[in-house]
Amino acid sequence: MVSRSPRVTYSNTQTRIETESSPEQVAHLVNSMMQEDVLYLLARCIRLLPFESRKDCQSIFSYVFRFKPANNVSPEPPAMAYTIQQRPEVIVELCRGYGYKESAMPCGVVLREILKQYEDVASIILHDESNEDQRAISIDEIDPREAPVQTGEGVFWHFFTWIENGAFEVSTDAFTTFRELLTRHKQLLALYLEKNFDLFFNRYNTVLVQSKSYVTKRQSIKLLGELLLDRANYNIMTAYVESGDHLKICMTLLKDDRKMVQYEGFHVFKVRFAKCMSKSMS
C-alpha cells in the first residue's frame, strides 16, 4: 500500500516485503485507488479495522491526498480533486467517522488536514444534507450566496451531537474539527451563518453553551467570543447582540459558579456592551 514514504509493500500471512517504488508506480497505485473507489471504502469501513490498521489508513489518506505526480497541472493533487469534484461522499463519510469511537480520531486528523487547505471541503461539509447511502452534494451544486436555508439534518449539524454525546476523546476531537470548520475559511462561514443564523445559534446555545460538560461548555463559550469578534462576522455579531435571548444566556454565564465559565462568558458579554456603546455614541 501507499505510506508516508514512497514504498510499495507486498505482504501475505507469511512474509512482508518492502521495496522502493518509483513515482510512476505510486501514481499508478493512486489512480487505481480512485478507479476502484478505495478511498470511499476506507472512509466507510475504517471503524471496522484493527487499531494499527486504522493508523495505517490515516497515513494512506494523508499521503494520497498530498501526492502530486510530476506532470500534474492542476493546483490540487489528483486524489483531492477527484474527491471534491466526483466523490464528495468520501468527505461526508470521514465526518461520519465521528459516530464511532474507533474511527473518530483517524478520520478527524484527515479532515483537519484537508480543511486547512481546501475551502471546497468545508463547503461540502457545510451544505451537504444527504442521508447515509445517498449521493452527497456536488461542489458544482453549491453557491454559498444562493444556497437555501439548511434543514439542520445535514452532516455538519451532526457535529453538535458528536461533541455533546460522544465519549471524551470523540467529543474533544470532534470539537477541534468543528472549530476548524468555523474559523478557517472566514468568508464562506460568514455567508453560511448569515443564511442559517437562527438555526445555528439556537443549536449552538442550547447544545454547546449550555452543555453539562464543563470542557464542552467552556470551549464553546470561548469559540463563540472568537466568532463574534472576527471582522468577517460583523453582521453576525450585530444580529447576535441585538437578541434579548442571547443577552439572557450571557447573564446566566456570568452567574455560573465556575470562574472560567464566568471569564469566557464575560468576553461574550463585553462584545454586546461595546456594540451598545458604539450605537449610543453614533
Quick gist of this model?
The protein is mainly alpha-helical and 282 residues long.
Account of the 3D structure:
The radius of gyration is 21 Å and the shape is globular. The protein has helices spanning 23-35, 38-45, 51-66, 78-85, 89-96, 101-117, 119-127, 158-165, 168-183, 186-195, 197-209, 214-229, 234-241, 244-254, 259-281; strands spanning 7-11, 16-20. The chain has 282 residues and is mainly alpha-helical. Helix 9 packs parallel to helix 12. It contains 15 helices and two strands. Strands 1-2 form a two-stranded antiparallel ribbon.
Trace the largest sheet across and list its strands: 1-2
Helix count equals 15
Shape: globular
Largest pleated sheet? 2 strands, antiparallel
Terminal residue distance: 64 Å
Supply the helix-strand structural class: mainly alpha
Low-pLDDT parts are 1-6, 8-17
How big a fraction of the residues is strand? under 5%
Helix content: 55-70%
How many beta-strand elements?
A: 2
Radius of gyration: 21 Å
Overall mean pLDDT stands at 86
The string of secondary-structure elements, in order, is EEHHHHHHHHHHHHHHH
Ordered list of secondary-structure elements with their pairings:
Layout: E1 7-11, E2 16-20, H1 23-35, H2 38-45, H3 51-66, H4 78-85, H5 89-96, H6 101-117, H7 119-127, H8 158-165, H9 168-183, H10 186-195, H11 197-209, H12 214-229, H13 234-241, H14 244-254, H15 259-281
Helix pairs in contact: 2-5, 3-6, 5-6, 6-7, 6-9, 8-9, 8-11, 9-12, 12-15, 13-15, 14-15
Descriptive terms for the model:
disordered N terminus, mainly alpha, single chain, 2 strands, two-stranded antiparallel sheet, 15 helices, 4% strand, globular, 282 residues
